[in-house]
Amino acid sequence: MTDISWLGPPIDVRPLFAEQHVAFIDLLRQLTDDEWLRPTICPEWTVKDIAAHVLGDHVGRLSMHRDGEGFRVLHPHDAEPFTVYLDRINEEWVVTARRISTPLLIDLLSTVGEQIVRFWPTVDPAALGARVRWAGPGPLPFWLDAARDFSEYWTHHQQICDATGRAGLMDPEYLGPVLDTFLRALPYTLRNVTAPEGTVIEMSVTGSGGGAWTCIRGPERWKLQHQSSPAPTARVELSADTTWRLCTRGITPEEAIAQAHISGDRHLATAALQIVSIMWTPPDEQDEWPKHRTPGH
Q: Matching InterPro entries, A to Z (predicted)?
């Protein structure tokens, strides 16, 4: 049996999809013509572009994992890094979707989003086979795949709220599972960090949906636990707002370090703050390939 205990205890976000979907469609229906065209944190993408990107995510999920038939798998170009490939096809979709009117886009998102809500309860969360590259290689449980999708929808929802001056879904019932999902990237983030067995790094998140997560060095790898440690080797305290923005590269690790309270081994703390919980093209690769960076995908 495949050991996935290093990911921490399972979480089940499936009941939250319906509430987030309703809130997202309600948000889009409130937007003015000017707000649809406002710039966002995603370079060169407007609010409408982010909404269109979410539609593309929905279509891809249903076509690939629910339907299967008639779905064409795309592949990277020769020598194209996977994250660059992903940025490219996301950009191609968004550019094409600019031909869709905003009323039609809302209708499509409403209809297809309802199918997403109905899809996830049909999936066995404990089954292995999911690919969540930022959490580690190999087949992972579908509870993490569902959590990854929910956290992405939440992130894009929040990016639209940020661009239009709205608060978003910041209640603990939403932000808590999002933070819990993002911090599942911590063991993989630390995979190349050597430390004695028993070394403990604690990430303490303050504010709405916060809590404590520890990563403990075992004989073969780092292992995540959703609890505090009485005497961690290194401890990092961040606000909930800083944490989700760091994990989606809305801010850089350097910016997060400036806002963090760090105690203990600073080298380990800095390593933990390299966490990224999305498929993201690093700056050195962005210099070599077209720059279509999409925070939160």
A: DinB/YfiT-like, Maleyloyr_isom, MDMPI_metal-binding
Q: What does each C-alpha distance from 3 to 138, 182, 187, 216, 221 come to in angstroms?
A: 11, 20, 14, 16, 12
In this prediction, residue 297 carries a pLDDT of: 53
CA dihedral over 252, 254, 255, 260, signed as positive or negative: positive
Distances (CA, A) of 17 to 51, 147, 173, 216, 261: 16, 10, 12, 31, 33
12-169 is classed CATH 1.20.120.450? yes
**Predicted structure pTM score:** 0.93
CB 62 within 8 A of CB 109: no
Which residue's structure tokens are 């993989």? Answer: 188
Q: Report the distance separating Cα 239 and Cα 13, nearest Å.
A: 22
- SS3 label, residue 272: helix
